Amino acid sequence: MTDFSVDQDARAVILPAFDSLDFAEVMLPFLERGGCSVLIGENRAEYVARAMSPERLARETPERFHACIAALKGVTPHLIVAVDQELGGIQRLQGLVPALPTLEEAQALDDEALAERCRVTAAAARELDVTMFLAPVADIVDGQNPWLRARTMGVEPQAVARVVSAFVKGVQSAGVTAVTKHFPGFNDLAEDPALVDVSLLSPRERILQNALPFTAAIEAGTKAIMTGPAPVAAIDPDNAASTSPAVMAMLRNDFGFKGLVVSDDLDAPATLRGRTLLETATASLNAGADLLLVGGGPHLDALCEGIAAATRAGRITRERLGEAAARVRQNATGV
Known about the structure:
It contains 15 helices and ten strands. The protein has helices at 6-12, 24-32, 44-49, 54-59, 62-73, 103-108, 111-127, 157-173, 204-209, 212-220, 245-254, 269-272, 277-287, 300-312, 318-333; strands at 14-18, 37-40, 80-83, 132-133, 177-183, 224-227, 231-232, 236-240, 260-262, 292-295. Helix 1 crosses helix 14, helix 1 packs across helix 15 and helix 8 packs parallel to helix 10. An eight-stranded parallel beta sheet has the order 9-6-5-4-3-2-1-10. A two-stranded antiparallel sheet has the order 7-8. The protein is an alpha/beta fold. The longest helix has 17 residues, at 111-127. It is globular and about 55 Å long. The protein has one domain: Glycoside hydrolase, family 3, N-terminal domain (TIM Barrel), CATH 3.20.20.
């Protein structure tokens, strides 16, 4: 039996994302009612540019960043603080911590040296109270993919697997959770799933050939894996990976992953597929996701109340919600 209420568990499974440090008004009541995670993200322009803006770099200091997190930890001492800190891609902590190696540097370093470079970045992030990197990107893109342009680490599965493994070992040795993404790998998407309802049409054989980096991450001990934001037609043409029971079953059963499953952004058109955010969150939990990434804002309370109501009505089992919340809290406490 859980020691937490349905309402507390409904908040524990939500990872709210904010594009600035002005989140206290929303986050403090969310945490007081059971939430335990926050994603400190970037705005759309920074996401597209794969770099933080000059304005942000001038305005944000390590001291201000740390102080904003400290205010939240005053309510929830065991707090998951996530950022996008990708090797070769988006680095939310640009200007705040030592940079990760460039992709070219990473490919030239041996495994031990590469892991050490990643550890140094993660250790500095840990000093800022960051506990989770939404990275590494393990997708192999051998077609087109505007969503992952300038965020992936190569087209040769074995080479990418080596970098992914070193990244996971390095950052986790510093006490930061690596969230390897975006399972099962999106090698070819015609458009950006954050903007358009698009599906991965690659054959299952190609997807599995390109999935070696995920296997390597699991073998390296990655504590979390993020599922993707679009349907994988060869596995489940109707549901995005983050809401697909078949994709979750593949991850758990075929790949043997036992850790925390994080959804990609449930607000994405390719994930929503015409449903409400609550319907999508319910589907994601029922599929097997544990921590649900959503945009932060005043709507959070209604979303969490909706998840609690869905559980009381039997649309989500109490056991499933409790299992997901327990995995999230386990990660938050570092147990």
